[in-house]
């Protein structure tokens, strides 16, 4: 068994699949099973380092059954169940993450003025946490290449792990 994390919509549905997950109600949710066909079927989840790539309104700890397929920004298993909702991932934390990413994007632009066209628009909504994280990482990539992109995503992951008290 492996512990990982799963972002879902506010009502507990898969962001891409629309699948309604059995939610934990004081105990783990029911097991979900699917044949593994990467990016098509299987129980997809993320490791701590993958968190910034999959942001959505609700975050859950998920228990995955082996065998686990590890990919660049996610893991896939034949079976999994939601163990608990991570309550610290809430409106306040999402806004704080968005502010951090927005500040980071502006810091990167200030250090590399020729990338001013990459700056987030002044009217960007703070609830767009995933978009702001992506923008900051893409600015880093434009300034320093793919390694800078990956480093920016690593820093975002570290921020999330610390703020959400995950291990």
Summarize it.
With 167 residues, the protein is α+β, with helices and mostly antiparallel strands.
Structure description:
This protein is an alpha+beta fold and 167 residues long. α1 runs parallel beside α2 and α2 packs antiparallel against α3. The protein folds into two domains: 84 residues, no CATH class; 73 residues. It has a four-stranded antiparallel beta sheet with strand order 1-4-7-2, with no helix packed on it. A three-stranded antiparallel beta sheet has the order 3-6-5, with no helix packed on it. Helices cover 33% and strands 19% of the residues. The model has no long low-confidence stretch (mean pLDDT 90). The longest helix has 21 residues. It has three helices and seven strands; from the N terminus they run βββββββααα.
The helix fraction, in percent, is: 25-40%
Strand count, sense and closure of the main sheet?
Answer: 4 strands, antiparallel
Multimeric organization: single chain
- Widest beta sheet: strand line-up: 1-4-7-2
CA-to-CA gap between the ends? 16 Å
Rg of Cα set: 17 Å
Overall strand count:
7
Please write the string of helix (H) and strand (E) elements: EEEEEEEHHH
Keywords:
single chain; 167 residues; 2 domains; 3 helices
Topology overview:
Blueprint: E1 2-8, E2 32-33, E3 43-45, E4 58-64, E5 69-70, E6 75-77, E7 79-85, H1 91-111, H2 129-144, H3 146-163
Antiparallel strand pairs: 1-4, 2-7, 3-6, 4-7, 5-6
Helix pairs in contact: 1-2, 2-3
């Amino acid at each position: 068994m492996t512990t990982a994390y799963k972002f879902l919509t506010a009502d507990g549905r898969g962001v891409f699949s629309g699948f309604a997950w059995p939610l934990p109600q004081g105990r783990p949710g029911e097991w979900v099973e699917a044949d593994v066909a990467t990016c098509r079927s299987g129980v997809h989840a993320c490791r701590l380092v993958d968190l910034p790539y999959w942001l959505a309104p609700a975050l859950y700890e998920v228990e995955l059954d082996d065998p686990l397929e590890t990919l660049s920004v996610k893991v896939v298993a034949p079976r999994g169940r939601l163990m608990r909702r991570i309550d610290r991932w809430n409106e306040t934390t999402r806004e704080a993450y968005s502010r951090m990413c927005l500040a980071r994007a502006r810091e990167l632009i200030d250090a590399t003025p020729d990338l001013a066209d990459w700056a987030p628009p002044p009217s960007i909504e703070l609830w767009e946490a995933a978009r702001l994280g992506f923008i900051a990482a893409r600015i880093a990539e434009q300034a320093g290449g793919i390694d800078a992109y990956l480093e920016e995503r690593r820093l975002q992951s570290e921020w999330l792990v610390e703020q959400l008290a995950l291990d």
